[in-house]
């Protein structure tokens, strides 16, 4: 469904079959010279049909179109190779560019596969990566890397690239300073908390995400164009809510861990989750996401020296750091 959400800015809702979020917001900004598309959706038959219908309706020439991927996840980058073959120039942040190409070329495992193996979780809950990025996902997409401060001129719009890592290591946003617009991908969503996945033991992903929230809070923004659900017109209110939720979960995790050592799975099972089902009734995907989020919080507390990490007979445990 194509909707004009701001003068010369259109939202194209792309279906995400068999995925909890149902749809993704792909945006098209039009001008007489070049056009800009932000994010794509999975490379599925339904996704391709929806994105092509929007292109036809706006009479877009893909050879005069720049495609910006806010981050590497397949619901945002799945049709990059497909649209590149049709003529679009594809851009993504430098860090996620390296990660995505290495996954598509099968040089390394996707983060969720690494995490699933480390925590003995079932990675089969996710659809095939090859299907989500397209049948030719082993071919490298010619990504043009974007860095903080780069600009893109589209008609009357001048978009500045802003690094906002957290949801992924190389997540970027697009800021139109004069018109006070910000395209934020999955960095901020209107009624759910964006997931902050485990990146590795060397980085505090949650701490980095909260710093990125503060960075966007400081910007003068009138309209926040999100990757899913509704647009946001009071970004500072929503950021305050998200930071408050982060702080509440950090404290809850800290209080729980005071009882003794636990695995990430055991910790997740004893935390409060804002859904109707009891832990025993969680689907496999719900459990995976819950444990992933919990691990990120445990690592945040470990980086803050509140907890320490131990490996006991091949299992990962966290316990209070009694200094």
Q: CATH superfamily assignment of the largest domain?
A: Ribonuclease Z/Hydroxyacylglutathione hydrolase-like
Whole-number radius of gyration? 20 Å
SS class: alpha/beta
Mean pLDDT: 91
- Total strands: 14
In percent, how helical is the residue content? 25-40%
Cα separation of the termini: 57 Å
Number of helices: 10
Strand residues, percent: 15-25%
The quaternary organization reads as single chain
State the order of secondary-structure elements, H for helix, E for strand.
EEEEHEHHEHHHEEEEEHEHHHEE
The largest beta-sheet arranges its strands as 1-2-3-4-5-6-7
What is the C-level CATH assignment of the largest domain? Alpha Beta
Topology of this protein?
Layout: E1 2-6, E2 9-15, E3 23-29, E4 35-38, H1 45-57, E5 65-69, H2 74-77, H3 80-85, E6 89-93, H4 94-104, H5 111-118, H6 129-133, E7 143-146, E8 151-154, E9 157-163, E10 172-176, E11 181-185, H7 205-217, E12 223-226, H8 235-257, H9 264-269, H10 284-303, E13 307-312, E14 315-320
Parallel strand pairs: 4-5, 5-6, 6-7, 11-12
Antiparallel strand pairs: 1-2, 2-3, 3-4, 8-9, 9-10, 10-11, 13-14
Could you characterize what this model shows?
The protein has 323 residues and is of the alpha/beta class. The protein has 2 domains: 241 residues, Ribonuclease Z/Hydroxyacylglutathione hydrolase-like (Metallo-beta-lactamase, Chain A), CATH 3.60.15.10; 63 residues, Orthogonal Bundle (Arc Repressor Mutant, subunit A), CATH 1.10.10. 34% of the residues lie in helices and 23% in strands. The strands form 3 sheets. Strands 1-2-3-4-5-6-7 form a 7-stranded mixed beta sheet. A 5-stranded mixed beta sheet has the order 8-9-10-11-12, with no helix packed on it. A two-stranded antiparallel sheet has the order 13-14. Strand 13 and strand 14 form a beta hairpin. The radius of gyration is 20 Å and the shape is globular. The N and C termini lie far apart (57 Å).
């Amino acid at each position: 469904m194509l909707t004009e959400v701001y003068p010369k800015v259109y939202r194209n809702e792309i279906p995400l079959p068999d995925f909890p979020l149902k749809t993704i917001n792909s945006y098209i900004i039009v001008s007489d010279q070049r056009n800009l598309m932000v994010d794509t959706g999975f490379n599925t038959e339904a996704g391709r049909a929806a994105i092509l219908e929007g292109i036809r309706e706006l009479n877009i020439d893909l050879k005069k179109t720049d495609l910006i991927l806010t981050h590497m996840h397949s619901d945002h980058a799945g049709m990059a190779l497909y649209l590149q073959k049709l003529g679009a120039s594809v851009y993504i942040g430098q860090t996620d560019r390296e990660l995505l190409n290495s996954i598509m070329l099968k040089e390394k495992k996707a983060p969720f596969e690494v995490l699933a193996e480390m925590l003995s979780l079932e990675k089969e809950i996710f659809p095939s990566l090859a299907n989500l990025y397209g049948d030719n996902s082993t071919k490298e997409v010619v990504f043009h890397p974007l860095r903080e401060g780069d600009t893109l001129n589209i008609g009357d719009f001048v978009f500045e690239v802003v690094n906002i890592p957290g949801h992924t290591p190389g997540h970027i946003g697009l800021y139109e300073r004069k018109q006070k617009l910000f395209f934020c991908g999955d960095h901020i969503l209107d009624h759910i908390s964006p997931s902050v996945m485990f990146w590795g033991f060397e980085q505090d992903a949650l701490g980095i995400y909260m710093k990125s929230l503060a960075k966007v809070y400081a910007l003068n923004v009138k309209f926040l164009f999100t990757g899913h659900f509704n647009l946001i017109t009071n970004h500072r209110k929503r950021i305050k809510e998200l930071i408050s939720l982060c702080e509440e979960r950090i404290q809850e995790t800290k209080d729980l861990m005071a009882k003794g050592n636990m695995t990430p799975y055991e910790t997740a099972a004893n935390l409060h989750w804002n859904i109707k089902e009891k832990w025993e009734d969680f689907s496999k995907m719900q459990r995976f996401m819950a444990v992933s989020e919990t691990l990120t919080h445990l690592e945040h507390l470990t980086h803050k020296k509140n907890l320490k990490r131990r490996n006991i007979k091949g299992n990962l445990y966290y316990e209070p750091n009694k200094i």
